[in-house]
Description:
- The chain starts with 9 loop residues before the first strand and ends with a helix.
- The relative contact order is 0.17.
- It is an alpha/beta fold and 308 residues long.
- The chain has one domain (6-227, 284-304): PAC-like subunit (Rossmann fold, 3-Layer(aba) Sandwich).
- The longest helix has 21 residues, at 284-304.
- A hairpin with a 2-residue loop joins strand 4 (73-76) and strand 5.
- It contains nine helices and ten strands.
- The chain is globular, with a radius of gyration of 21 Å.
Amino acid sequence: MSAFDPAELFEVxxxxxxxxxxxxxxxxxxxxxxxxxxxxxxxxxLLGSLPSEPLVRFDVDVxxxxxxxxxxxxxxxxxxxxxxxxxxxxxxxSDTTGRPFLMLxxxxxxxxxxxxxxxxxxCVHRFGVSLTIGxxxxxxxxxxxxxxxxxxxxxxxxxxxxxxxxxxxVTVPASVGHLLEYRLATGGSGVLGFAVHVPHYLAQAAYPAxxxxxxxxxxxxxxxxxxxxxxxxxxxxxxxxxxxxVSQSEELRELVAGLETQHDAYLAGRADRVQxxxxxxxxxxxxxAELERFLAEQNKRGRDDPRP
Length: 308
């Protein structure tokens, strides 16, 4: 790759507010997989509940494939009324105590990932970001009746120690968020990522409980106060609705009960001593294969579906 000035990729349109505490940036770009709409739900909650303003605007024409993901336009009778232009921004947000933090939001770039990552890394160093935290949501063979689990990754060992791994080695299609974490870590920057485990039977539905789990993980790792009360209420209502649907289906009740037994045995560390009829339940290898299959389907859907 020829040398270039990363500052050519973006425009600084705001002024960073100074604060004597660690500056955190949350990576919340749209991607091809977001089980339970957990990432989107948390992003919309934060930007809808906390004051924010744009700090950096990237040149989206460099990164967006308009023919693969055509933006929407509204035609009204005899004229074009609006255009939903894609955007990639770093927004400056204030938590409930007034502490500033940053959010990287917008459409995941279609092309030039390495240049985009260099541009974001340039902003990380320019603004003195101490910790970048990525968000993800993945389908797992877990029940919605238990607290949502998390897979944590990065180079903050004190935080990672709080989240024992669920999956060891698995190969999945890349995302620009994961590439950003990888490159920042290689360069010595502080990084973390949280992937919330969404019940596989709810992967295509909105699941606010998973968004709430991500929010609590963010608060714990960063010290930010992120106004989770409204999201808590939404999560309770959604979970009650799911319980109602499950109660109406014997097949779903059996599925959830089996997942509960497997989940509880795993967490107790005594799965080999619990007598479980697990013939219909996925093994660890099968869960990994299911994750790979789900991600591959989402990747194919992103290529085949021209809609944004």
